[in-house]
TrEMBL record, chain A:
PROSITE patterns, A to Z: ABC_TM1 (PS50928)
ABC transmembrane type-1 domain segment(s): 73-280
Subcellular location per the Swiss-Prot or TrEMBL entry: Cell membrane
PANTHER family for the chain: INNER MEMBRANE ABC TRANSPORTER PERMEASE PROTEIN YDCU-RELATED, INNER MEMBRANE ABC TRANSPORTER PERMEASE PROTEIN YDCU-RELATED-RELATED
A Gene Ontology cellular-component term: plasma membrane
Family to which this protein belongs: Belongs to the binding-protein-dependent transport system permease family. CysTW subfamily.
Name of the protein this chain belongs to: Spermidine/putrescine transport system permease protein
UniProtKB/TrEMBL annotation, chain B:
GO biological process: putrescine transport
Protein name: Spermidine/putrescine transport system ATP-binding protein
A Pfam short name: TOBE_2
Organism of this sequence: Vreelandella arcis
Gene3D superfamilies xref list: 2.40.50.100, P-loop containing nucleotide triphosphate hydrolases
Amino acid sequence: MISSLRRLRHSKSSQGILLVLPAVVFVLGIIGFAIASLLAYSVWTQDYMEIVYAPTLANYVNFLSEPIFSYLLAKSLLIALLASLVTVVAAYPVAYYVSFKVSRHKLLWIMVITLPFWMSYLLRIFSWKLILGYNGIVNSTLLDLGLITQPLEFILYNNFSVIITLAHAWAPFAIIPIFLSMERIDRTLLDAAADLGDTALQRFWRVTWPLTLPGVFSASVLVFIPIVGDYVTPQLVGGTNGTMIGNLMFAMFGKLNDWPQGSAMALISLVAIALTVMLIRWCLGVRKVEVK
Amino acid sequence: MNRFHQEDFRLSSQAHIRIVGVSKRYGDHNALKQVDLDIREGEFFSLLGPSGGGKTTLLKMLGGFETPTEGDIYINGEHVNDVPPHKRNTNMVFQNYALFPHLNVIDNIGYGLRRSGLTADEKNQKINGLIELTQLSGLEKRNIEHLSGGQKQRVALARALVMDPSVLLLDEPLGALDKTLRDEMGLELRAIQKRVGITFVFVTHDQEEAMALSDRVAVLFDGAIAQVDTPRRLYDGPRSASVANFIGTSNIFDARIIAVNPSNIRVEIAGQWTMDLPRDADHSAEVSQNLSIAVRPERIAVNPTVNAADEFVGKAKVATVSFRGDRSYLELDDPYSSTRLSVVLLNLPNSDKPVPEIGDEAVFSFCQQDVILLT
């Protein structure tokens, strides 16, 4: 054993393998274990406090026959899509400004822009409650200005507030990949486009935008995937109408104590997310672009 | 056809590009100093100089990417100082090609035609004509990353030429290619220029390239033009020591005027030889004024092939000999100049005259026609 390891260490090509081996084992182990246990649980059933180990597709059938489950999943995907869209649309000009208009200390700019995101996620959600709440900043300002006579209730505890809060929370995860894809654009390409007759706006749509699509795609995916499964934000700012699939899964693994049903739900979400990501990719028309 | 005849014919045609008193300052740095230049219609014109000489700045001004701090630029008689690149009838081949990585070969070439008002058929015809001209057939759908350096070069050229520019600007287009390909592409570039008849303004730091391709060359040092001439005149009659050393190799000797006559001046070279030069009306000449003269290495003869008719003869010791096949490069330690004397000898077939060897005492000679007077 020791001697074969030593032999491994001496061959040059295997040195690389040895270097990545711990990480690969760790990642594959963790992910593999998680997926395997989800798969296993999803074909078992819960009988009060007991797990019944007879394999069955009952949980999947149950998921599809209960409209509320599919509804919540579809709604979560839609909210996550909208939140990702808002995030990316808001992040793009910020990244563009820093990449194209700032000439010095770009990284410092990025750090300063993402500074608010260094504090706790929960605190940020609570501050949105302070802003959008019944006695919050928006309402009291509008009241003081005499624009409304009683506080607006529709701005908190609904899907709108969930989207706003999520978009803000995930902004840095969108800004950074988009910024990096812009940094990699050779600026003489824009000169070449101008030389060939393009105005500033045409240069943007014909050169900058297509070359930043990989960054926009990474940003969308990076933001979309975690949002689908989020259950903290909907719970805190979504009210009763804001429930998402994550809240339900949280309940299945918690209060309702139905791990098999939760596992089936998680796997179905996984597939739905993968399909949606492919859809995003197709919509953006991301081709295999090597930007050097 | 004789190059000089061609030159005289061109002198009569009007200036296509006129650069008048153009300066460019970046803070304290003067990138260009009072540059005046006329470039003629249909000319292959090179801007030659070491890096930092201002040649790329000047080219970018012609393309509209830089504006002069002072002075005026006219193209086809139109004042273009403040005309942005997309409104100019100039096109550029960029140093690193600047091909669009998200488009294939044909889409790169057709990029500028999108808003040209041509029908799809006309566009295709134009693009195909250029694909043929630049020998890119078969690569139309190829991805840009999968092209070789030479192929990228051709795509960049086709993409610019498809616009029918009145001036094509080329920023060190051959710089990224290896030596053999560079020579080949250079000649091809020259042939294409002859065929399309467009004015080419070509930036390079490689004097051989500039000499081989250009109708005329402007030599730029430190943002100022040192000399504008045909390659042959630049080589045969450099006006300053810096040009004489930048274009080919030169042996520089100190000289002094020892007599000024109504029709000629008498010059003493290296305290050794004297010669009479016709007096140039433009230049003031005074006795004991210091000058420099240059002699090209291939004009110097070395024993045993020393020329009996040569006026100037000296003795030296062979310091180095470097054999290059068709010719040999020699360096001589001589008492007449501050640096070693460079000599090039042709190695002719069946020559019974051996090349001198290191350490040999050598006699060298040159004649009055070989002397270039520098100012």
